[in-house]
Amino acid sequence: MASKKFNYFSLLFLTLVALPIAQSTTMEARKSTGVNQFCTTASHKELCTKMVNDATNMHDATQNAILATLDLAKKIHFMSHLIEPAIATLEPISQESVRSTCKDNFENTIDDLETSLQALKDNDQGTLLTHLSASISSDCEDALKQFGVDNPLGKITVHLAKEVDNCLAVVQQI
């Protein structure tokens, strides 16, 4: 009789322990459904999956992610004129300072992403990581804040930072 009680107790215990684990695994599987294999460590998995564009190898996933990010960086650079109305009330010297800082920031981001692409082609992981990391720059945002100006490109630059973060996640896959 004691062995039957033990078996029932063991079965009940295992059920209570295994059920939450199985549910957790099922929930994780649902979360991962549709996530590209190179985006599993990304902070923004769905965005990353779109960025890598069905890549099936690490090189293509990295290249696609950087190209998507570069495309967004070029759009931001093209939209930089939207800063003008935001800084219109500043003194002319302050306007020029912000304008110059933002222009440099956007151009440097593009340059860093292009250098990252070249480093990928050259199989130079150190340069790739260095320039990807450098492409996340908030110099323009900081300059605007310094003068108490809201960034009219704030939402899109936050999105750019997410894309760069995803690029770094793809590159650093183990």
From TrEMBL:
<feature type="domain" description="Pectinesterase inhibitor">
    <location>
        <begin position="30"/>
        <end position="170"/>
    </location>
</feature>
<dbReference type="Pfam" id="PF04043">
    <property type="entry name" value="PMEI"/>
</dbReference>
<protein>
    <submittedName>
        <fullName>Pectinesterase inhibitor-like</fullName>
    </submittedName>
</protein>
<dbReference type="GO" id="GO:0004857">
    <property type="term" value="F:enzyme inhibitor activity"/>
</dbReference>
<dbReference type="InterPro" id="IPR035513">
    <property type="entry name" value="Invertase/methylesterase_inhib"/>
</dbReference>
<dbReference type="InterPro" id="IPR006501">
    <property type="entry name" value="Pectinesterase_inhib_dom"/>
</dbReference>
<keyword id="KW-0732">Signal</keyword>
<feature type="signal peptide">
    <location>
        <begin position="1"/>
        <end position="24"/>
    </location>
</feature>
